[in-house]
Amino acid sequence: MTELAAETLVTVVTETRLGWAGVALSERGIRHATLFHRTRAACVGELQAFGAVDREDPRAGEIRGLLDKYAAGASVSLDDYPVDLPACTEVQRETWLALREIPRGETRSYGWLARRVGSQSPRAIGAMVGANPIPLWLPCHRVVATDGSLHGFGGGLAMKQELLELEGALPPRIVG
Questions:
Q1: Which residues are catalytic?
Q2: Domain 3-71 class?
Q3: pLDDT, tens digit, 9 for 90 and up, residues 3-29
Q4: Could you state, in order of their start, the residue ranges of all structural domains in the chain?
Q5: Which of 96, 102, 93, 109 is nearest to 152 (CA)?
Q6: Which CATH class is domain 90-167?
């Protein structure tokens, strides 16, 4: 197998209750992931921007099942699925992987995360969290401000709130 073939990324997308979501898979795990999109085309387009191709993969069924169950509110863990981080600095790697230490149903502050990775700057950590290439699977939505307020999320604060409610970290909003 050529080096190029070894680095081919494959798209896996599925429609869930929350919208279309997907991942770009390398042979070693998830390299990139999307949040929830309104259309399949938007989801696939985001993954193709990272060089992923739309081709079947034997792991697709498991990933689709995990995303479907997660979006439906089932207590499944996306945190354990293998990831294959793209090229990054050591502090980015430590920060992104530390996100997996935040249990479902809980949140941690940017300050906590900064201390966890030995950084003096919660703002710098916030920027790294904002550049997370594998959202949901590296649960950046579980990071909140020190006062518990929601800040900075690529999918918007409404989606961050919905994900935290889905996981039980926030009480559900009362509608009506």
A1: 140
A2: alpha beta
A3: 444 478 999 999 999 999 999 999 999
A4: 3-71, 90-167
A5: 109
A6: mainly alpha
